[in-house]
Write a structure and sequence with these properties.
Number of helices: 8
Structural class: alpha+beta
Largest sheet: 9 strands, mixed
Order of helices and strands: EEHEEHHEEHEHEEEEHEHEEEH
Bound molecules: N-(5'-phosphopyridoxyl)-D-alanine
Number of domains: 2
CATH superfamily of the largest domain: D-amino Acid Aminotransferase, subunit A, domain 2
CATH topology of the largest domain: D-amino Acid Aminotransferase, Chain A, domain 2
């Protein structure tokens, strides 16, 4: 059975068929969830913010003492080739680096050989209505695991915390579940970061010390604001701050900038997509176009930030 007819899989240097695409049961990714990943999409076949994703993959892997044996240029070539096969459709890409095989013991072996996997498939866009009139989100009942227990900045394939939180969104057809940290501060979505325009008109996002993944898109939005002299605060936000905000949006590599107009069924601001979100969306789309042109002209995945 083929799970996704559009999927193409690359493992440790080889493009393989779905039935050949296997990882040993001894892999520590399977045994213990000891693996890291990155997800991103293409625009016109160009993997967006590839260098930033690669760098975060290496940082996450280092935290688990896993070495990524492929260079940024190696993985760029693999991803670009896989993505180009889907044109004119866009690709979803996921790079996974596992802990490699070992006996069933917590201590990793000294010499380990990580499995490196790239999965690609056709990118399925999110509902257009979400971008036009805003998406609904809920506050998850499950809290984000604190950095002193399992640092959310490690982008590990162990997504149990996120899966449990996302159930609350899935149950009511919401786009995302917003997770609070153990103290009740807004941390992030189950697979996105959160921004608000507060009642005074100031753009704000939870600071990293709240305990959240440092999203590539979050960083990109912060940089866009700095370049355009838009003040933005990284701070602590309460649920009331979110509910009383003029505007809310979430960001991720797949969703881009997604306006939010309902939190737990209550409208945000006047219930429509606000001017700051619209402006950022315009700048974001312009930046993507410029990046695609620059990469197409030079053929290399230049760092953006
Ligand atoms: N998710 N927070 C969490 C917990 C995430 O899983 C993600 C990304 C983000 C946004 O990060 P970025 O802007 O780098 O995509 C924030 C991806 C899309 C995923 O899990 O597939």
């Amino acid at each position: 059975m083929r799970l996704n007819p559009s999927a193409s899989i690359w493992i440790n240097g080889q493009t393989v068929t779905e039935s050949q695409a296997t990882v040993p049961v001894w892999d520590r990714g399977f045994l213990f969830g000891e693996s890291v990943y990155e997800t991103f999409r293409t625009y016109e076949g160009v993997p967006w913010l590839f260098v930033e994703h690669y760098e975060r993959l290496v940082r996450s892997a280092e935290r688990l003492h896993i070495r990524v044996s492929y260079s940024v240029a190696d993985l760029w070539a693999v991803c670009l080739r896989m993505a180009e096969a889907y044109l004119p459709q866009e690709a979803y890409l996921r790079i996974i680096v596992t802990g490699g095989v070992s006996d069933i013991v917590l201590e990793p072996p000294h010499e380990r050989v990580p499995n490196v996997i790239v999965i690609s498939k056709v990118f399925q866009p999110f509902p257009a209505a979400w971008y036009e009139t805003g998406a609904p989100v809920v506050i998850a009942r499950v809290r984000r695991n604190p950095a002193f227990a399992l640092d959310p900045r490690i982008k590990s394939c162990n997504l149990l915390n996120n899966i449990l939180a996302y159930r609350d969104a899935a149950q009511v057809g919401a786009a995302e579940a917003i997770m609070l940290n153990y103290e009740g501060w807004v941390a992030e979505g189950a697979s996105s970061n959160v921004f608000i325009v507060n009642a005074r008109g100031v753009l704000q996002t939870p600071s990293l010390d709240v305990g959240l993944l440092e999203g590539v898109t979050r960083r990109f939005v912060l940089q866009l604001c700095r370049q355009r002299a838009i003040p933005i605060e990284e701070t602590h936000l309460s649920v009331e701050d979110l509910q009383q905000a003029r505007e809310v949006f979430i960001t991720s590599s797949l969703k881009g900038i997604l306006p939010v107009t309902l939190v737990d069924g209550r409208p945000i601001g006047d219930g429509t997509v606000g001017p700051v979100t619209r402006q950022l969306l315009r700048w974001y789309n312009e930046a993507i176009r410029a990046y695609v042109e620059r990469v197409r002209a030079g053929g290399t995945p230049l760092p953006y930030c």
